[in-house]
Amino acid sequence: MEINKDKVISFYDQFAEKQEVTGINSRHLSILDKVVAAGLKSHHSILEIGCGIGTVSHLLAHQVKSGEVLAVDISPESVEKAKEIWKDQQNLKFEVSDMSDFDKAGKKFDFFVFPDVLEHIPVDQHARLFQNIQKHSHSESVVFIHIPAPRYLQWMIENEPEKLQVIDQPLDSGELIKSLTNNGFYLEKMETYPIFFQEKDYQYFVFRATKPLEKSTPRGKWEVLKERMAIRLRYGILK
Fold first, then answer.
1. Model confidence pLDDT, tens digit, residues 146-182
2. Residue 69's beta-bridge partner residues?
3. Which domain holds residue 151?
4. What is the pLDDT of residue 1?
5. CATH number reported for the structural domain that contains residue 89 in this entry
6. Taking 50 as the threshold, does the pLDDT of residue 124 lie above it?
7. Taking the chain, what is the end-to-end CA distance rounded to the nearest angstrom?
């Protein structure tokens, strides 16, 4: 997808004003909830890609009180607004970057969070992006990706294109999984679920750094038995 970078920056510089008015919504809270469920701890370091004016960044930083959040965005205007809005959060930093030249000289992050940004980055740039993520990851790193559900976004393109951003492309889940797998991560969880519409308008993925298993640990017999009995009761299986 050939779109001038300056045009993209200009769009998001103007979009920053709209974000400031919107505030925290259900999508932001859902992202926070699912990142925490993926294992976020209070001491973790986070790299957030596509932070806008820092709404999700602020929520994440509040959860990692002894850790840190570095949030980046392509829009200088968005980053400046974010720095001003969240200036009192000492563990939250903002930088202008489209990730093409991102390099923290050996810095490793525990979590990488993509809060509805990948659909706005041309697919042909994803491979390089994930290579950069791998470079800044370690053996326990987690990549969390939140995107509009492809089927729902396609409906938006066909029926309400005026509500879309300068780049808004449905992402092939299989290709996304392949890209992360090729860069040292495996898919742990994926779900398509509803936030604003009953038609399940969003999708999220949890990827973990791939490393060899060191052991095989059996689950407790009582835990397995309780699950089995619960299923039997649910479906009336008595024998």
1. 999 999 999 999 999 999 887 889 999 999 999 999 9
2. 46, 92
3. 5-214
4. 47
5. 3.40.50.150
6. yes
7. 59
Q: Which residue has the tokens 């491979």?
A: 127
Per the structure, how many domains does the chain have?
1
237 occurs within a structural domain: no
CB neighbour list of residue 78: distance below 8 Å, 6 or more residues apart: 12, 13, 15, 16, 19, 51, 52, 53
Q: 54 near 77, Cβ under 8 Å? A: no
Q: How far apart are CA 56 and CA 174, in angstroms?
A: 26
Judge whether 37 lies within some domain. Answer: yes
In-domain check, residue 133: yes
Residue 224 belongs to some domain of the structure: no
